[in-house]
Design brief:
Elements: E1 2-4, E2 10-22, E3 26-38, H1 44-54, E4 60-71, E5 77-90, E6 95-99, E7 103-108, H2 111-116, E8 121-135, E9 140-144, E10 150-152, E11 157-171, H3 174-177, E12 185-198
Antiparallel strand pairs: 1-2, 2-4, 2-6, 3-4, 5-8, 5-11, 6-8, 7-8, 9-12, 10-12, 11-12
């Protein structure tokens, strides 16, 4: 259903089924399509309330029909993630599209979310199907294993999946070494067994300058 045309355009072939995508990300379509705006970025009242409380309102649209629909987001690189009953945690701004069968919602992330300035909740996607996430430059998928925990700069973090625990730790980033940091920097520590998606370009985050 999901396929890439180049690295920056997602093509979704539909035969009467539906896909959920970031509002405004549709760039072209053929066939017969119906578009419906959804609100909240998560299913149910809890998803809507938590988004409003944290200022992370994410506008989503549902596209349903027969034909092909193409999506893109400001020429960002697109990465396909296959879910087989597991859960994907992704920053709201990095989620481009999901199979309609996948459940989306929000989850509490603790201090990491607060330090990034993205609130205390992040977007979750779970079930069986495909999701498309965007990154500033081609994303790198890194393995986390029980023997080898992974340390990630908050500005480079995009998403993670698997049996992974995350915590915040103090550390040094490249901005600190270059004298661009405003004080003690923080990093995200991942432990367990799973995958972490990082981008080769750092967003400016509050965490890097605390």
């Amino acid at each position: 259903m999901f396929r890439l045309q180049g690295s920056k355009v997602l093509a979704v072939d539909m035969t009467g089924d539906a896909v959920k995508a970031k509002n405004g990300s549709m760039v072209a379509y053929d066939g017969q399509m119906a578009f419906k705006k959804l609100s909240g970025g998560g299913e149910g009242l809890r998803g809507m309330v938590t988004r409003r409380l944290t200022g992370e309102q994410m506008t989503v649209m549902e596209v349903k029909g027969h034909g092909t629909c193409w999506f893109a987001d400001r020429a960002a690189e697109i990465n396909l993630v296959a879910l087989q009953g597991d859960k994907l945690h992704v920053e709201a701004g990095n989620l481009l599209a999901t199979d309609a069968a996948l459940r989306t919602g929000t989850t509490f992330t603790g201090l990491r979310g607060a330090s990034q300035g993205n609130g205390l909740f992040t977007t979750t996607v779970e079930g069986h199907g495909q999701a498309a996430i965007v990154s500033d430059g081609p994303a790198v998928v890194l393995r986390v294993s029980p023997q080898y925990p992974l340390i990630v700069d908050p500005g480079a973090y995009v998403a993670h999946q698997g049996d992974v625990r995350q915590s915040l730790q103090s550390g040094v980033t490249f901005r600190t070494l270059l004298g661009e940091g405003g004080g003690e920097a923080f990093q995200i520590r991942f432990e367990g067994d799973g995958l972490v998606y990082v981008q080769p370009s750092e967003r400016h985050t509050i965490a890097g300058d605390l």
